[in-house]
Write a structure and sequence with these properties.
The chain has about 290 residues and is mainly α. The protein has 15 helices and two strands. Helix 5 crosses helix 11.
Length: about 290
Amino acid sequence: MSIRLPPVVKQLLTLRTPASYVISRAGLARLRGVLQQTREEARERSVEDGWVVLASCALLTSNVPPAFADLYRVASRTNPDDAQSRVSVSEVIRTASLMREAALKSTIFVGVPRVILSLAEFHAAIEDDIKAALRKDAHPDRACTPENARAVVERGQALWNNIYAPHDVKLANKLGSYHPDFIAFIIQSYGAVLSPLPDPAAQGNLSRTLGSVVGTACLRAEARVGPQLTSHVFGLLKARAVPGLAPSDYWLSSDAGTEWVLRAIDRIVETVEQERVDPGELKEAAKL
């Protein structure tokens, strides 16, 4: 059955600026400057993976899909405008898999629509050889089955407890009072998506620390969700107690590292907010 949008409905859909933001060429250059500055800071501290994750989540949450895709060019080339300046294939695969995983985890904090829009632009920006090297099948620890359902819930519960203790039980009861299925949904989401995959070597796997960077970046960029942001900043600080922590994760979860994460997110978000425009505005400007 073929259905067309009624004219009135079509007109209504043009109101309230439903299109996601875009960014002008000049604005993109300024944003690239901030991305490169924060990346250099991350390199000096050996936490470049943390930069990839926080920048991905800040841009995705800001709802400027072309800027999210351009982050890939900034991160994978010495000159974002020159495809020939791409770094090694292994480095690019790592960057692409980290960005893709950070976007997936962002779904928990900012919802599906913005993630789809950013991933679509990102997917179009990735070169064919990199696409071919990225994982194609759902990870068995995420594709829920009768055999692994208990393990998913246990991972989610463990992460919940680690982030919210000593208030984990009290908070779970409070959320359960809002809707009886709410906490079950959250625990399952934490287990399937937010928690690290059981295989540390899985492509794009984010550590416990980097998972908290995701939450911190999304909620900081989202704004006006102070209690949730504070909870996940505490989660980032608590990540330093995870056994066998990599030096980069330990620094990111330190007091100094957490301060840097917040300040880097703010610089990226503030630049995006200054430079992003409605697509209609760019069209009008082009006519002048």
